[in-house]
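Readers of this paper often ask what the protein records in our data store actually look like. Below, we set out a record of this kind in full and without editing:
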Amino acid sequence: MAEKPASRDSNLINRLIAAIESASAHVGVIGLGYVGLPLVRAFCAAGLKTTGFDVDQEKIRKLLAGRSYIRHLPAALLSDIIARGQFTPTADFSRLATCDALIICVPTPLTIHREPDMQYVAGTAQTIAAHLRPGQLIVLESTTYPGTTREVVLPVLAQSGLKVGNDFLLAYSPEREDPGRTDFQTADIPKVVGGYDAHSLAAAVSLYRHAVKTVVPVESCEIAEASKILENCYRCINIAMINELKMILDRMGIDVWKVIAAAKTKPFGFHAFYPGPGLGGHCIPIDPFYLSWKARQYDLTARFIELAGELNTSMPYYVISKVAEALNEVGRPIKKSRILVLGLAYKKDVDDLRESPSIVLIEQLKKRGARVNYNDPYIPSTHRQRHHDLQMKSVKLTAAALRRYDLVIIATDHSTYDWPMIVRNARKIVDTRNATAGIKGSKNKIIRA
């Protein structure tokens, strides 16, 4: 539950809240990735001066040079708000002290043992503590387990000697970005906000109301933290269920995609989820394990969550079994076969490859001796990630090129792909996204996975 208001410097906190309410507050966003940069756009659209902080100097250079590294954020838009002085990207963290509100949007990955890796959150809190001044609001947006704001962020900030609720305010508001969506932007997605105390909640709610149409205050940071975990557990478990159903129905000779199409005609009580080669993005493959880890601290086992996570993690290996089946039909082993993976991004029409199952597919196929290439119109080359480094470049997708491969795997169904052309020219296809449904000439070439 939220803390009772502490004795405080009324003038200091009141000035902060007044600045926020009047839209004269200076906002700092820490982490200019798929969460932070859209948030910058939303605050600038609301007229608030915003500084963006990132340790990646290359991101700062690109922004200052008028280039965008996130496909759905146009370079012209970012250049315009920089030119007008609304947005200043920087790697100089001493400028944190100039901001009235600081919003933390840094990664929260898993360790190799699937435990929360809080180094980026804790490290950012340490950096803020070094520059923290009285009269600032700190908000954590990174998705995490219930208790993080109070148990991880607050103790680090307290090392500054300043007191929460008295000298500075603290809140949590989960990010809800879904890269690639065109029907919702940051301003359209309701914003859940929980505060450390009543003053923190009031300040954070006021801040987000400038940039977001609907703000949903809740009673504590923990409720806000748990709400995001619930959202992602819901999706993780349902996707795992449909992936398992896909494998069962495939064995029975039933098309799961046709089953879903029939089931979703019911106007109530059913929400369609779709199978795939595995989960990707920052949220669904990772966040449920945060809750299962936290549950163990209370001597509980999150059995549904862990089972769903294991099943979704296993899907690339199921796809590889289908690759072996498809190649076997033409008398070839995986070893030395030429395989083209279509789509490196974790979902269609984005340039985001975080936790993409395509990466696991490529690594495992190479491990089995296959000669693998990929094509992705949005990812011309790979970059080093925390646990992967493919060091590959996207190959051109032409009819002649397709004919040179023994097998094509449809891993991501980008809208730009010409599926009839791909079906005409590919020798054999493993389709994990039902992208080739209804295309003439596909019947004897396609294995669905």
